[in-house]
Design goal:
Blueprint: H1 8-12, H2 25-31, E1 36-39, H3 44-52, E2 57-60, H4 66-79, H5 83-104, E3 111-117, E4 121-124, H6 129-136, E5 140-141, E6 151-153, H7 156-162, E7 166-170, H8 178-184, H9 193-196, E8 200-203, H10 205-208, H11 215-226
Parallel strand pairs: 1-2, 3-5, 3-7, 7-8
Antiparallel strand pairs: 3-4, 4-6
Helix pairs in contact: 4-5, 5-11
Length: 244
């Protein structure tokens, strides 16, 4: 939570909130919660144990669209009796997305790709939330040209062949983010225009991989990086979150 929470500053200021290294039933049963919110990529055995102990569980999917995220906000609102607050949150979510859409409308959409490299490289194809982030930020997902879906293994050689105009990576330090430096320091990519001219956009992972309302931050950050001229002081600011 201290690395990947969308509400990072909130959790940093509330160290009294329990942290867990793993999703384990024993730790959660001690708290005797009235309700557990979890998702499909957590350990199913743990969820079953909690249900056997009579704890109501609301399990969400690993959302691959912003519509799914929007629906989850409204669902939580209904379950905890805060439908009006959830509706206001969704209204703000939609307004911020609409503001980005208006700002980038009619502008040339660069071919971009979302890439990460640890022990091997991965790119994001169509059908994932990061694909929608690219499109809503005013870009074209270059992997759509290859009809690739989901998170797929992708090499530097394939990047050279694809020739994206922009590469999007995860990171909090902009061009100095570790994932950006992996690309910038690779001799094999030195002549790739996106690398040569620094067209690498770093977006904090807590936003780009978010399955909550904080995903809109990723759209705004990336749109500003791809289309800086659309967000000048004269055109007004978007949202109230972090900027890069």
């Amino acid at each position: 939570v201290d690395q990947f929470a969308g509400a990072l500053e909130f959790f940093r200021s509330h160290p009294e909130i329990k942290r867990f290294e793993r999703f384990q039933a024993e730790q959660l049963l001690v708290l005797r919660p009235d309700l557990l919110l979890t998702n499909s990529f957590q350990e199913a055995t743990t969820t079953s144990i909690l249900e056997e102990h009579g704890i109501p569980v609301l399990k969400f999917d690993a959302f691959r669209s912003l519509d799914g995220i929007r629906g989850s906000i409204l669902t939580v609102g209904r379950v905890v009796g805060e439908e009006e607050r959830a509706a206001r949150m969704v209204a703000e979510f939609d307004a911020r997305l609409a503001a980005v859409e208006k700002a980038v409308a009619g502008r040339k959409k660069p071919r971009a790709m979302h890439y990460s490299r640890y022990e091997q490289g991965f790119a994001v194809g169509i059908g994932e939330s990061q694909d929608e982030i690219l499109r809503r930020a005013g870009a074209v997902n270059a992997l759509a040209e290859l009809n690739l879906t989901g998170h797929v293994a992708f090499s530097f050689e394939q990047i050279l062949k694809l020739q994206p105009e922009w590469i999007v990576v995860s990171g909090d330090e902009g061009i100095d983010s570790p994932q950006a430096r992996v690309l910038l320091n690779s001799p094999s990519l030195a002549e790739l225009p996106a690398v040569k001219h620094g067209r690498i956009a770093a977006v904090p992972d807590r936003f780009s991989s978010s399955i909550s309302q904080y995903v809109v931050e990723a759209v705004e950050i990336l749109a500003r990086r791809l289309h800086p001229e659309a967000f000048s002081a004269e055109s007004g600011a978007l949202g109230a979150g972090p900027r890069q």
